[in-house]
Amino acid sequence: MVTQITQGIKISVMTTFEGTYFKNHAMHFAFSYHITIENHSKDSVQLMARHWEIFDALNDLETVDGEGVVGKKPVLKPGEIYTYSSGCLLRAPFGTMQGYFTMINFTSTKSFEVIIPPFKLSAPFALN
Question: Cβ-count burial of 121 within 10 angstroms (0-12 exposed, 13-18 middle, 19+ buried)?
Fold first, then answer.
């Protein structure tokens, strides 16, 4: 598990290799990731958007931007935790992801970015 705290918001990530799939006449490697967001600040915040940079060992880069996470824009009061799971397909058996969440602080009404720490995606059979 990797963790990062930005302005009192703690992000923790765990990953799982899910298997191989054929898509568009090519082998792909499926990974799930489980993200826990903890509000250790004194203010309520809302997750508004996400930005991902997904790299695979073949030097492919995919950038993903979107509203919320898994169709939601969760509000976290001080001390609250929100967890969700999602996934991605890579063309290589290993890679990395990193990014940030854009959040709004309800007290200051300002938006800020919360770092999602880089994390590895690796199929167990691909490791030495």
Answer: buried
In tens, the pLDDT along 68-111 reads 999 999 999 999 999 999 999 999 999 999 999 999 999 999 99
Helix (H) or strand (E) holding 71: none
| CB burial readout 21-58, b (16+ within 10 A) else e | eeeeeeebbbbebebebbbebeeebebebbebebbbbe
Domain locations along the chain: 2-122
d(CA 29, CA 59): 15
Of 2, 23, 31, 46, the closest CA to residue 94 belongs to 31
The one-letter code for the residue type at 47 is L
At residue 126, the 3 state secondary structure works out as helix
CATH of domain 2-122: 2.60.40.1470
